[in-house]
Amino acid sequence: MQKTLATVFSLVCLLSAVGTLAQKGKIVGRVISYDGPIPQANIIVKGTSIGVATGVDGTYSLAMAVGNYEIEGSFIGMATQTQNIEVKAGETTIVNFFLSESSSGLNEVVVSGTMKEVSRSESPVPVEVYTAKFFEKNPTPSLFEALQNINGVRPQLNCNVCNTGDIHINGLEGPYTQVLIDGMPIVSGLSTVYGLMGIPNSMVERVEVVKGPASSLYGSESVGGLINVITKMPNLAPVFSLDIMGTTWQELNVDIGLKNKVGEKASVLTGINLFNYTNPVDNNKDHFTDVTLQERASIFQKWDFSKNNRLFTLAGRYFYEDRYGGEMNWTPQDRGSDEVYGESIITKRWELTSQYQLPLQEKVMFWLSLNGHHQNSYYGDVPYFANQKIFFGQLTWDKEIQKHALLSGVALRFTHYNDNTPATALPANTPLPGVFVQDEISFSKKHLLLLGIRYDYHREHGGIFTPRMAYKWSLKKNSSIRINAGSGFRVVNLFTEEHAALTGAREVEVIEELSPERSYNINLNYLKKWFLGKAYVSIDGSAWYTYFTNQILPDYDTNPNKIIYDNLNGSAVSRGISLNLEAVLQSGISLRAGASYLDIYTAEVNESGETITKRPVLAEEWTATWALSYHWKKLDLSFDYTGNLYGPMRLPLLGELDPRDEYSPWWSIQNIQTTWAPKGKKWELYGGVKNLLNLTPPANSIARANDPFDKNVVFDVDGNPVSTPDNPYALTFDPGYVYAPNQGIRGYIGFRYRFSN
Question: For domain 109-229, which architecture applies?
Answer without folding.
Answer: Beta Complex (2.170)
